[in-house]
Specification:
By secondary structure, the protein is α+β, with helices and mostly antiparallel strands. The protein has helices at residues 39-42, 49-59, 69-75, 80-92, 199-210, 212-215, 223-238, 243-251, 261-271, 308-315; strands at residues 15-16, 26-27, 96-102, 108-114, 289-291, 298-300.
Length: 322
């Protein structure tokens, strides 16, 4: 009897590829409900994992499915911001293209074109709509069943060129490169100085600075700081500021983390310096009171004499009786 010929199996067996560590692919035959996705998308290192997963999901959808940000954010746990960022990545790498069209009712809608092979920027596929659609209403795309749609041909594997190696550093000349210079701190403005220094103002200023620690223990100054700040306080006293006013200006609203009291006092003495007092205007003296020589009534005049009524009486003509 001839050797019996065995027929092919009705279902393909699972193919298990053994590998030393890492992932092991277990592939089962799927007669329907499958999508062919190229490795140029699933292994694209220029895309984030969110963009890769979203691109695979969009390619598995039938024509006419909604892929706007609100719909996608409602399906998955990613929020609208991450979905919008993933859509921008796919659009920049040529996997989708969003085209705005005007419906016959006058509404503006967005049509998303999905490419299983990325398109270069500026190229247009034969199935894409023109840039300016005609005024006639476009026919609505009919969603075909996934099982009846023929599978597209497998895309060619994209071969990346090898990364360019950075040029070698130039040979050192033996002279060490100096470190970059640090930006210098701005020089603080000089302390105010009195116009005509007097020993009395200097002593009062030094005593005021030395007694600031009674108002706040953190204002304990060294003797050299007192000598350095005394001319600034003397300038305040020369401009007519009272010692109590100077003390309040230096000790009010101190910061809670005061570390450098001398620097704070120097800043306040410079920034809050009051203007000099204006020159005193001469006061006008009132006209003195005089007693009238005619009626003995008081009136104001620079010199003694007659009042206005008595002067008018003397200047009036005397009537002679007939």
């Amino acid at each position: 009897m001839a050797e019996q010929q065995l027929s092919a199996h009705s279902r393909a067996r699972s193919v298990v590829r053994q590998s030393a560590g890492g992932v092991t692919q277990i592939s089962d035959y799927q007669p329907k409900r499958y999508t062919i996705i190229g490795d140029h998308l699933t292994q694209n290192r220029d895309l984030s994992l969110t963009a890769i997963g979203l691109g695979a999901h969009i390619q598995s959808l039938p024509d006419g499915a909604a892929v706007d940000i609100r719909t996608l954010a409602g399906k998955f746990t990613e929020g609208r911001d991450r979905v919008a960022a993933a859509l921008r990545e796919l659009e920049e790498h040529g996997y989708i293209k969003r085209v705005r069209e005007r419906t016959p009712e006058g509404r503006i809608v967005t049509r998303t074109l999905s490419y299983n092979v990325p398109r270069a920027t500026g190229t247009r596929h034969a199935a894409e709509p023109a840039a300016e659609p005609a005024a006639e209403p476009a026919a609505e795309p009919v969603a075909e069943p996934v099982a009846e749609r023929p599978a597209p041909p497998a895309p060619e594997r994209v071969v990346r060129p090898p990364a360019a190696t950075p040029p070698p550093p130039p040979p050192s000349s033996g002279t060490p490169t100096p470190p970059p210079a640090r930006p210098s701190r701005p020089t603080p403005p000089p302390l105010p100085q009195p116009t005509a220094p007097t020993p009395q103002h200097h002593r009062s200023a030094a005593a005021l600075l030395a007694e600031l620690r009674r108002d706040d223990a953190r204002l304990l100054l060294a003797e050299r700081d007192v000598r350095r700040l005394a001319p600034g306080v003397a300038a305040w006293l020369e401009r007519g500021a009272a010692p109590d006013a100077v003390r309040r200006a230096l000790t009010t609203d101190l910061p809670p983390d005061l570390r450098h009291p001398a620097a704070l006092l120097a800043h306040r003495l410079t920034a809050l310096l009051p203007p000099p007092l204006p020159e005193a205007q001469p006061r006008s003296h009132p006209v003195p009171l005089q007693n009238c020589d005619g009626c003995d009534r008081a009136f104001r005049a620079p010199r003694p004499g007659l009042c206005r009524d008595c002067r008018e009486t003397q200047q009036a003509p005397t009537r002679v009786a007939a």
